[in-house]
């Protein structure tokens, strides 16, 4: 494929999904990651896209706030996932909740019980306290990342490593039986891996569009997690519940 057609294909993918990753484009177009990065740099210089860590987003999405766009994407599915996940929470539980947008919606669905939450997202902390004054909420301190609206970095992981939780709720950028649970940045991955390691039970929240998608780093194999909660659109992914070792739960 010549460079002009390749860049057109990149723009087509952006128009379809709103966000692309270097890894996915490299595999799809059968070129090196360096070639894709050069294409993205050129498209950005032409004002057609905006580069982000590990990929790019549509120009208009950035202007409207890419984070808000991610929250609204598949919102009904995320609400269903959040409701099912919330049923797993009991009185006096200690929870890790990472900064994914599905967890922001989960925060609105949590039951009105006295439990403790440790999160790296001030937005999630606010949502929980808006709906439940009984909950004790702690925000992990670290370097603030505007793209993810979260605190990330070594200090966040160090704090997590001193805490033992009953359940962690973790988002996914991609998931498959072969590659496990993937996220789209190394910084996110380190936080998620630490939360999983320090929790009795790990629960992955992933709407159906995340199945078969790639990421930059695996945070856990399917064997290493306890549950995956997704929406009924899962039936269109080409996978079956059996592909995920009986750990899949589908929200209505």
TrEMBL record:
HTH deoR-type domain location: 3-58
InterPro entries given in the database record: Carb_Metab_HTH_regulators, DeoR-like_C, DeoR_HTH, NagB/RpiA_transferase-like, Tscrpt_reg_HTH_DeoR_CS, WH-like_DNA-bd_sf, WH_DNA-bd_sf
Alphabetized Pfam families for the sequence: DeoRC, HTH_DeoR
Presence of keyword S-adenosyl-L-methionine: no
Gene Ontology molecular function, alphabetical: DNA binding; DNA-binding transcription factor activity
Top-rank taxon: Bacteria
Keywords on record: DNA-binding, Transcription, Transcription regulation
Protein's name according to its UniProt entry: DeoR/GlpR transcriptional regulator
């Amino acid at each position: 494929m010549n460079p002009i057609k390749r860049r057109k294909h990149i723009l087509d993918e952006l128009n379809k999904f709103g966000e692309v990753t270097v890894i996915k484009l490299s595999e799809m177009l059968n070129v090196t990651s360096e070639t894709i990065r050069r294409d993205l740099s050129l498209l950005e210089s032409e004002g057609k896209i905006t580069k982000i860590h590990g990929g790019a987003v549509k120009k208009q999405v950035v202007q409207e706030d890419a984070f808000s766009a991610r929250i609204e994407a598949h919102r009904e599915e995320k609400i269903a996932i959040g409701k099912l996940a919330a049923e797993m929470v009991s009185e006096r539980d200690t929870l890790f909740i990472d900064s994914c947008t599905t967890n922001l919606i989960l925060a609105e669905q949590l039951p009105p019980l006295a439990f403790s939450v440790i999160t790296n997202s001030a937005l999630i902390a606010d949502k929980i306290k808006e709906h439940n004054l009984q909950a004790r909420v702690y925000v992990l301190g670290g370097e603030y990342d505007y793209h993810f609206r979260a605190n990330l970095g070594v200090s966040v992981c160090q704090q997590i490593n001193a805490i033992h939780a009953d359940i962690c709720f973790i988002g996914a950028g991609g998931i498959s039986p072969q590659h496990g649970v993937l996220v789209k940045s190394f910084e996110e991955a380190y936080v998620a891996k630490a939360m999983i390691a320090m929790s009795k039970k790990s629960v992955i929240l992933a709407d159906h569009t995340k199945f078969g998608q790639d990421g930059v780093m695996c945070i856990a194999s399917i064997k290493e997690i306890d549950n995956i909660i997704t929406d009924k659109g899962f039936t269109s992914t080409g996978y079956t519940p059996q592909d995920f070792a009986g750990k899949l739960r589908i929200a209505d």
